[in-house]
Amino acid sequence: MRSILGVLALVVLGTAAWAKCDHPFYPVREGWVWTYSSSVDKNPYTIQTLEVKADRFIQRFTFTNFGFDSRWTCDARGLTQPEFAPSGQTGLQMKFKTRKATGVVLPQNLRVGSSWSYSYEASGEAQQGNLTIQMEQSVRTTSKVVGQESVSVPAGRFTALKVESTQTTRGTMTMGGRSSPLNLTVKSTSWYAPNVGLVRSQSEQVVIELVSLKR
């Protein structure tokens, strides 16, 4: 997104890449930066899109004390993340390998009544101080657009599609030589506005809202 194309031919190519990856409710545009607030951490965080190609792009998440890159792919079905493991980490130590990923995170033809799923299997470890946490997990998320409504956030008021999701996690977590089962189900609601993207997301414990969008 930070690329400045000075040659007409490159501009044309870049526009073609955007057209391939772009989404009406999840813009994939170089130079755009989303700032969000979270009820968990009062400090805002940003998401920036980088290296937009014809069939892939990168999102850079920057928090107060750490950051990471998330790699996406795009095709006629929509947008997806082929790997659970973040890359380009700063202030964060995680090593994960994705064995399998199916479905899409966000389908291309998003409208009221749309339903879809995304699943992945991953294993690896995370370092927290002197403690190593090993995890083996299988995650499945099912989503459905249940309506369209007006929603107000710090960035303004938007007419957005309302998406209800259920994420189920199964697996094991090993810490200090002791293993515990992972058996979690999280229900969430998200709102996506056209030509803006995610404007609000909430679950039982977390609320995320769009503070600003820099185009």
- Quaternary organisation of the protein chains: single chain
Helix content: under 10%
Proportion of β residues?
over 45%
* Secondary structure category: mainly beta
- How does the major sheet shape up? 14 strands, antiparallel
- Please mark out the parts with pLDDT under 50 across 5 or more consecutive residues, or reply none: 1-18
- Compressed to H and E, one letter per element, the order equals HEEEEEEEEEEEEEE
Q: How many runs of DSSP E, i.e. beta strands?
A: 14
Total DSSP helices:
1
Shape: globular
Radius of gyration: 18 Å
Distance between the termini: 10 Å
Which whole number gives the mean pLDDT? 84
Question: Keywords, please?
Answer:
215 residues; mainly beta; 14-stranded antiparallel sheet; 7% helix; globular
Give the helices and strands, then pairings.
Layout: H1 8-21, E1 33-38, E2 45-50, E3 56-62, E4 67-75, E5 78-80, E6 87-90, E7 94-103, E8 106-107, E9 115-128, E10 131-153, E11 156-175, E12 178-193, E13 197-202, E14 207-214
Antiparallel strand pairs: 1-2, 1-14, 2-3, 3-4, 4-5, 4-6, 5-8, 7-9, 9-10, 10-11, 11-12, 12-13, 13-14
